[in-house]
Amino acid sequence: MSASSIMEPTVVSRLQQLLGREATVADPAKLQEVAIDGCAPQAIALPSSAEEIAATLRVAGEQDWVVVPVGGGTRLHVGRAPERVDLALSLEKLNRILTYDPGDLTISVEAGMRIHSVQAECRQNRQLLPLDTSAGATIGGALASAENGPWRAGFGASRDFCIGVEFITGDGFCGRGGGRVVKNVAGYDLMKLMIGSFGSLGVIVSANFKLFPLPAQTLTCLCEFDSLATLIEFRDWLLRSPLSPMAAEVVNPPAVEYFSDAAPRDPDEWAPPTAVAENAPAWQLALQFAGSDRVLARCRQELGEAEHRTLRGEEEAAFWRGLRNFEQRVMSRHRNALIFQVQVPISETSSAIEAASAAATDYNFLAAVIGRVTTGTFVVAFLTLAIDPPAVTQFASAASAFRSRLSKAASAVVLRCPVEAKRHFDVWGSTPIDLELMRKIKRAMDAKNVLNRGRFMVE
Predict the structure, then answer these.
(1) Distance CA 102, CA 122 (A)
(2) CB burial readout 20-34, b (16+ within 10 A) else e
(3) Interval 182-218: pLDDT, tens
(4) Of 105, 232, 297, 356, which residue is the least packed, with the fewest Cβ within 10 Å?
(5) Helices and strands counted in the chain (H then E)
(6) Taking each helix axis from N to C terminus, what angle separates 228-240 and 349-362, rounded to the nearest 10 degrees?
(7) What b/e readout covers 231-259, taking b as 16+ CB neighbours within 10 angstroms?
(8) CB-based contacts of 411: which residues, under 8 Å, 6+ apart?
(9) CA-closest candidate to residue 360, choices 342, 373, 374
(10) Is the dihedral angle over the CA atoms 257, 262, 264, 269 positive or is it negative?
(11) Is the preceding peptide bond at 272 cis, omega within 30 degrees of 0?
């Protein structure tokens, strides 16, 4: 029984008075669906407007509730394990397109809308919202977690094409940053502040984006290399070349195992290394290009012998779906995996990947790596080699060893690991960000520490 269970009648009854019975969920099975590291909330609130969210957060402050905003639930596992959760604040009812101006290439949507639904609407006008996140993500969740997929190489991060947000602070006040037109920069810093705050400063209720023309056709070229060094050398040539890929993704040999539905290689086959020397998968660099037949032919010509094979149509779409859902595919096969989100200067790409491999080997893991090789953003999965799960201290030691090999300009946030291990180290790690400034901002926007208490890197 959680420490907050004694408050259950108060939480549920207050929500029913505030939002109505139909907007208050207390069914134990439903509560378990939004549990965070085994900690289920007292109730789920389903507000249908920004005003109801504000009222809910004001009551939460009065009652000292711990509130967790919930979108598609795809990033709830990120962060420290909570001591308690009183209320899950679901945004599923905020799922409308507010304004869409195809001629101006702008759209405004509510935060609970699924990204794939927004993209489907944009496709009708041959336009693209380049949020290529994992399946099921919502607009608000993707912004709050600053989640970016392979298209970051060609379109930038979400904060580069998000032009405005509306949010409710932890104190229940409405705030806005940015605007609805591309040239409007009012509140610029405040908008950027909300993106990547993991719901610790406020609840994003709507967002405005600039859109891009939808490519008439795309082509993916898979380049293979016998070593990381030769891949990085080619990457450096690519950055100097006139080529502009929509995506440029590195896939190391162990990660190739997770791009198909076949069972992964038996761990014993990975050690010693000589056991897989014959016919071992190569280092891959996946490049996605868009344009006319002439443009795509020129891209292939520029790549020359580096191109191993090309992907088109459904084969191409399946490859990128597998890559975007890499984290989920790993977890479906390795429930004890240790998964990092790594950000490094692109000049440190090679050393960071080598550091991951070395730290994993030292602690009886195998490092599977994918990532945006032209921006320095990677997902690194430490896969257990033993049949029995590692001791919790082994996860902490492996994470510490990996981080100690990175520069001060890099970060390695733990996205997933067993909940027992989370309590033995800081999942956020060190950061070049000014933490004291972050604490002041937190106190200013959520003075009563209502939102995601104890889960983010500052309190």
Answers:
(1) 8
(2) eeebbbbeeeebeeb
(3) 555 544 468 888 999 999 999 999 999 999 999 999 9
(4) 297
(5) 16, 19
(6) 160
(7) bbebbeebeeeeeebbbbbbbbbbbbbbb
(8) 342, 343, 429, 430, 431, 432
(9) 342
(10) negative
(11) yes
Element (H, E) at 175: strand 174-178
- List the structure tokens of 319: 């490859």
pTM of the model: 0.90
User: Cβ(429)–Cβ(413) under 8 Å?
Assistant: yes
Q: Which residue has the tokens 């190489």?
A: 153
Separation of alpha carbons 186 and 175, rounded Å: 12
Q: What is the pLDDT of residues 52-97, one digit of tens each?
A: 999 999 999 999 999 999 999 999 999 999 999 999 999 999 999 9
Torsion of CA 256, 77, 162, 410, to 10 degrees: -70
Query: CA torsion 348→349→353→355, rounded to 10°?
Result: 0
Using N-to-C axis directions, what is the helix angle for 349-362 and 392-404, rounded to 10°?
Answer: 150
Question: How long is the chain?
Answer: 459
CA separation, residue 8 to residues 17, 25, 392 (Å):
14, 12, 32
Q: Token pair for residue 391?
A: 């001791």
Tokens 């994918």 found at:
370
Residue 169's Cβ-count burial label (10 Å; 0-12, 13-18, 19+) is: buried
